[in-house]
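Handover notes (outgoing to incoming on-call)

Open items:
1. DUF2490 domain-containing protein: sequence verified, structure written out, both below. Nothing else pending on this one.
2. Nothing else urgent.
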Amino acid sequence: MKTELKTILLILPLQLFFFGSLKSQSNSDVSSQIWIDVNPSYVGIPGLELFGDAGTRWEINDKSWIRLVLRPSMRVPIGKGFYFAAGLGNFYTINDAVSNRWEIRPFQGVSFTWPKGRIFIRHYIRLEERFDFNTTTWNSKNSLRGRYKLAVSHRWAAIQAGRYWQISATGEAFITLLGQQGQFQEQARVTLGLDRSFRYDLHFRFEVTWQLEQLFFSKRSVSDIYFRLRYTYRWGKN
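DUF2490 domain-containing protein structure tokens:
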């Protein structure tokens, strides 16, 4: 009971921040997006996981852009409960009014879970090197960005191994440490998610996310709401 109360107290500020931020934005300042991802994951060598995501994202209010994503990644344990992850993100944005852009984004990060149990909290800290190219001139805006994500999750109906339901609340902060930011300049995110795992190798997740970002040209901060569907398929060793 104490653990559940602690979790509620952690999730509640995220929810209040989520809905309060929505209320503070005018309708013209809120855009809606849809994200669809496929997330393959393979474990061959014990301790080494190869994973990633491939998908598409688009803005549905004025249909001003579509974004294609491909991000191969890897993860290895580096200590008790700690993992190191690295990868190479590719983000190609097809714009209506301006030149298309291609962002190449190497990243490195460390994740850990604390505390653990049926209700657990995950922490993820990463650095990203961003190279955002204008595909007409091939000029680029380059920057170094830090991210910190905190996720609180509760799992239930885990009667069989790999089969369960899960709800989660996630908060994430972004900070540009060096350089000039590109087209997408995220500042903060709050996500509410629902997971359904049918077995070890078959997993679906639906998310609703509020995101605060700075506009590329006007430098004005606006809110985004996006709906995300993620499909994960795993193979290899459990």
